[in-house]
Amino acid sequence: MTTPSEASAIEEFARKLRELRIDCGEPSYATISRLTRTDQESISVGSVHTLLAGQRQTKPEIVRAFVRAVLRHRDGAARPEHAGIVDEWFALWRATRLESQTRTTGPAATPRETPPPASPQAGDVSSASTAHRPGIDRDQLVTPRVRSFLAHLEAALASTDEQGRRWGSAKYGCYAFYDYDGEPIYVGQTNERVQTRVRRHLSNQRTDAVAMRVLDVQEVAELELWPLWEHEDVDRTGEAAHQARQHLDAVESTIYERLLAESRFGMLLNERVPATAEPVELPASRRFALVDDYTRREWGSAAVRIARRASTLARLADTAVERGVVSDGLRRAILVQGVRLTQLAASAYATASGTKEPVVQLQGLEVREGIPLT
């Protein structure tokens, strides 16, 4: 029988799986079951229900099959980067199992225990820490910088246009992230609601780009949104949905090409490159600052950013080593991070030495999309 303490860990894991399902387009249980058969990992509708209900911990094979299925639903097909995401969910399943077992087992009881005093003795830190105390405000455990960032993010998503529509509430739309220099670093699209996808990148930090160490959230200083309001009432299936997705792809491709042209490097961090499409007229957009003046001074300084870029590049390269076989897109992301780090270091040196700031360029190497780096 599952104890209350054990159940809380399993329920939390199930809640995260339910969030993943929503972020991947909320496929039905039957659709998930059907998709698992593609990988010869068939799980029943009942197994999906049990997994998401969080009533008991299921086998790891079911978790792996579920994650593969919802990722396949979101992306339309299996992708190489899915393997790393599945492995991370397995690690989370294992941690949940360990936590639930620890909560269930608890510390060993001594044969005879002395009843605790009615009130903590003076200077008795152990007794004082376990005495009744008011609940902890978990928001206070978050650093001021992160609280400020999340507050700016929520304000951006909740702000309204001239017609009173919230910028983050559009079902279909595209988004872009910019660094402290105003340099574009990442472009994405969604048909599950703009705010859901953006939050998954920047607050939950559980998208492929963040999990694979391609995108460092602490380098994001600005956000731009392009909502496609004309597709708000489109169902998930049918011809209208197909046309809406085609339009979404074309908008994303147009934004991507425009930002490539604006980038000083001619490169972005996207591992998955938007499919090439004929340029289209872009909808109205709005750009939001996500950091305050203090954060910009502190975390936007060259020393901090160089350290972060070096750390991110090392983790990204380590991810490639652990995966073994990686996509051209991931190799390109390693290249982009390397160029960005070099430019930051060169700019810092130029500032310190009083010389002209150099521009880092890659001579003789085509980095535009669709051409593999060899």
UniProtKB/TrEMBL annotation:
Q: Name one Pfam family in it.
A: GIY-YIG
Comp. bias intervals (Low complexity): 102-112
Q: Where is this region: Disordered?
A: 100-138
Origin superkingdom: Bacteria
The record's section on CDD domains has:
GIY-YIG_SF
**GIY-YIG domain boundaries:** 170-258
Any idea what this protein is called? GIY-YIG domain-containing protein
Organism expressing this protein natively: Actinosynnema mirum (strain ATCC 29888 / DSM 43827 / JCM 3225 / NBRC 14064 / NCIMB 13271 / NRRL B-12336 / IMRU 3971 / 101)
